[in-house]
């Protein structure tokens, strides 16, 4: 029977720890503040933004909300970001993606000060991860490292395969596993012999955005499987990139969907925001 890696429980532990830190900082007269910007009313984005506000309220982080209309111009959004960059009261800035089609997401994410880039998307923070210096790390990969550590799963010396090469998950994930002294292979849509490579993994991390793509044929006995995907299946039930029922019997540990990686993303965002205040205020 595989160990079920409980992201819900671990994220709650992390939020409780952050709540204690924030309470102690408030006693010293230090208040942590996150600015959240949403352009338009994309339903999924609204849910994510709502969850971030709830996490702020629970931990004690002040939340500034900027809900801008869909027809906001890019210059107007850049002006708001510049204002928030200059505001010493604000420690973290998050601009919810995706943005409307008339905006350049790259220009917007790069406009956020690296010191307030709690999403870890700025090239300065990505570069810091590559060379091993201080910077903010993208929240989902950072959350996966936290899941592995808190589940007592050894990383050093293990063979890790990351399926997916996105800037938000795949690439930073591979770099973080390398930093943890794993031997890392990155696979993607052009990889030959994908099944054979995945089957060599002690730790298999899947972030490809294809529902239930990874079956038992991709997984070796005793592997740890981390499923980053989230989709709705034909029955409208949530599922991941991994065919859980088929893969779980082979694993030593596995993340479920929902309740695995997902809850960690917001918890790590909160952690980055508290760190930003400690480092730069």
Describe it.
By secondary structure, the chain is α/β, with parallel strands linked by helices. The protein folds into two domains: 29-113, Rossmann fold (3-Layer(aba) Sandwich), CATH 3.40.50.10860; 139-262, Rossmann fold (3-Layer(aba) Sandwich). The chain has ten helices and eleven strands. The strands form three sheets. It has a six-stranded parallel β-sheet. A three-stranded parallel β-sheet has the order 3-2-4, sandwiched between helices. A two-stranded antiparallel ribbon has the order 9-10. Helix 2 (43-59) crosses helix 10 (262-280) and helix 6 packs across helix 10. 42% of the residues are buried.
Tags for this model:
six-stranded parallel sheet; three-stranded parallel sheet; 11 strands; globular; Rossmann fold; 2 domains; alpha/beta; 281 residues; 42% helix
